[in-house]
Amino acid sequence: MVILLMEARKLGSICGIITPLVAYIFIFTAILNAPGFSWATNALSDLGVWSIPLVPILFNTGLIISGLLLLGFTINLFIEMEDILGKIGALVFILDALSLIGVGVFPEDIPLWHFFFSVMFFSLVPIALLIITADFVLRKENIELAALAVICAILVVIIWAMPWSNIGVTGVAIPEFLSSLVGSLWVIGMSWKMLKLSTKNKGKG
Question: Any residues with CB less than 8 A from the CB of 144 and at least 6 apart, and which?
Answer without folding.
Answer: none
